[in-house]
Amino acid sequence: MTEQTPSGREEWRRMLEQMLGPEAAEEAMHALEASGVDPEQFASVAGMPQNPQQMAAAMSQMRQILSADDGGASDWRIAHDVARQAAHTGGDPSVSAADAAKTRSVLSVADLWLDAATELPPSGGKQYAASRAEWVERTLPTWRTVAEPIATSVADALATMMSAEELPEEASAMLGGVDIGAMMRRLGALSFAMQVGQAAGTLSREVFGGTDTGLPLLPEPSLLLVPANLREFAADLDAPEDEVWHFLAVREAAHARLFAHVPWLRGHLLGAVEQYARGIEIDLAHLEEQVRSIDPTDMDQLRSALSGGIFAAQHTPSQEQALSRLETALALVEGWVEEVTANAVAPHLPHHVPLREMLRRRRAAGGPAEDTFHTLVGLELRPRRARDAASLWALVAREQGLQARDALWSHPDVIPNAADLDSPAGFLARRALAAQEDHDVDAALAAMLDGELGYEAGAAENDGGGREGTEGSPEDRGGASEPDGDRD
Predict the structure, then answer these.
(1) Which residues, in sequence order, are bridge partners of residue 329?
(2) Residue 306 CB contacts under 8 Å (≥ 6 apart), including other chains
(3) Which of 92, 126, 197, 398 is deepest in the core (most CB within 10 A)?
(4) 126-129 and 222-225 strand pairing
(5) Which residues contact 15 (CB under 8 A, 6 or more apart)?
(6) Measured at the alpha carbon of residue 106, what is the angle toward residues 258 and 355, in degrees to the nearest 5?
(7) 126 has which bridge partners?
(8) Are 173 and 41 in contact (CB under 8 A)?
(9) What is the largest CA-CA distance in the chain?
(10) pTM exceeds 0.85 for this model
(11) Domain ranges of the chain
């Protein structure tokens, strides 16, 4: 008896079973068919992969993309997996007990040294020694917060563009009437999330702790170091490894103090990013050019297209304001941390000066991951004006003391602004002049109010005396005075 050739559905079920297992394979088949995708026609579409493993992977992606909307949770689960995979690229050594103990030791010493360099107390957070993958776990939620508004703009633009395109007949047959705009919106959101995951995973191989970017990536006050990255960084320096560990631990602890005890700062930074993201405009002509020749179900091609610089070159006034606010705040944070760290480590680390300069250059130059975020998000997280900010903080501490310097973080209206960074040397003189002007205005208002109160008091006294002297007069009795002639 001749064995019957299996149907197209059965072939795809077998391939998915090999990839996903029997239960997940059947579930994937049902999900695809419920979405209107005909598996038998899937392979016949021109340009689609014919290799069973590639096809199964594509179908698995389609199942996730076309499933019920879950607010982007599935997109970021995949981004999480991409980020961890990128973190493991080239190796991700587990944190040994010795590394964990050393991390706790240098972070504890860092807080002791910082007590002499700042009025802000220790953060009180937990101390972590993290692998690169663990750094991804702890920071990816904040990256999602930063990137998700922009991902929405990208996805909507992609959906708008693709909805206007007339699909080839075979593609329409494959999709079985699925809304191409809705599908591309999901594809765009997923692709963007995967790009952010890739960048976060790459960044995990470069960072020393939870605050290298200037943004508060850890959701709670805590201290975190990545021992593998500290060790690799120290290997290329002339300074002893222990000095490098202590120097970077002090920087991490200084950041943690700032974000723990300046409650408005986290919202100020992330709010500037959100304000910028709300005004994002996508260059539709450039995006169309990028995706014209790709297979929209090929996530690698789509990710490559979306990384090609799709943001409009012009910024709105609101975005310009947000960028200026963010640039100034990042510079102030980095400048304060740099200055406080330098003062804290100077009595203890012989190589503190070259280490400070090395970190300055490293932050100014950035790295591949920061370049990726710039392309994706349209934002640069490099504190270009950190030197000016450090000079300003040093000036205030020298002239007025640590308490006055740290008190400038008390409110966003009190911290130095972009104009102050333009001329740090004149900061205190300008503040003194402004304070004197405010004092003069207050004094003038007080004098004016005292004068009015004095006038009213005198008027009331005179008015009262007049009434006393004319008691019984016709006016006081409510009547009119009579002419002399009428009294006769």
Answers:
(1) none
(2) 154, 188, 191, 192, 195, 290, 376
(3) 197
(4) parallel
(5) 52, 53, 55, 56
(6) 75
(7) 222
(8) yes
(9) 148
(10) no
(11) 8-66, 73-407
